[in-house]
Amino acid sequence: MEWQNQKVVVLGGSSGIGLATVSRLAAAGANVVAVGRDQGKLDKALAGIEGRGQVASEALDCNDRAALDRFFARVGTIDHLVLTLSGGEGGGRFDELDLTALRRGFEAKLWPQLEAAQAGLPAIRRDGSLTFVTAISARIANPGTAGLGAINGALESMIGTLARELAPRRVNAVSPGVIDTAWWDKFPASVKTELFRQQAETLPVGRVGHAEDVAHALQFLMENTFMTGAVIECDGGLRLL
Asked: Is this entry keyworded Ribonucleoprotein (predicted)?
């Protein structure tokens, strides 16, 4: 794929996996629109990345459907839409799980991704791609992840059906494992450090993931025009444990 001729919108592009994806695609020569909720955070995050001249940014709340519709009407035809939107709630043992927090977890990830996907469809070229970011919690049975699995499993259950309904647009997802991003900053530093140590010792690859690992998988799904209805596990082998 000649990325110089491609226009990509990345929602959630101001940090973590989204920012790594923006950086990777811009370096490849794509024209990228990075979307986040805070323009100041976007400006700071995007400053100095390779290919910065290829990147535009826009502050947008993806829970606001009217704002999404206006955005996609302005941006014009795009080749690829990447949804890296996420939240931080929904984890914990089910017998102690705050279901109100789990509801907020759905509101922070499931609904914004679906609203953005639906709003963006008219802008995606006929044979372009739509790619979601879910999480490996949808595919494992680790205690404490039932709520997170429900959020991400709901998204993953739609991928195949959407691939058929929206063809010839391609619809795929990447399902990350433990990735060293700001998502983990809500935990005490000592807890995060110990968890990452345990993961590095037990994962087949011997380390936790980086945002760039997931960005690489996202780029692959955009580039490979024979991939649709697929969910790629980018988890270092966590699902095998």
From this structure: no
3-state SS, residue 221: helix
Is the predicted pLDDT of residue 133 greater than 80, yes or no? yes
User: Cβ(211)–Cβ(196) under 8 Å?
Assistant: no
Helix (H, G, I), strand (E, B) or coil at 5: helix
Domain boundaries, given as residue ranges, for the chain: 3-233
219: which residues sit within 8 A by CB, 6+ positions away? 21, 24, 25, 28
Q: Residue 52 above 80 pLDDT?
A: no
Query: Distances in Å between the alpha carbon of 231 and those of 57, 132, 171, 220?
Result: 28, 9, 9, 12
Task: Examine the pLDDT at 51 and tell me if it is beyond 80.
Answer: no
Closest by Cα among 76, 67, 58 to 115: 67
Q: What is the pTM of this model?
A: 0.95
How far apart, in whole angstroms, are the C-alpha atoms of residue 181 and residue 196?
Answer: 12
Looking at the chain, list the stretches that DSSP marks H as alpha helix, in order from N- to C-terminal side: 16-28, 39-46, 65-75, 99-120, 146-165, 189-202, 211-223
Cα separation, 96 vs 143, whole angstroms: 12
Listed in sequence order, the residues at least 6 apart from 124 whose beta carbon sits closer than 8 Å to its beta carbon are 77, 78, 79, 80, 81, 130, 169
Q: What is the CA radius of gyration of the chain?
A: 17
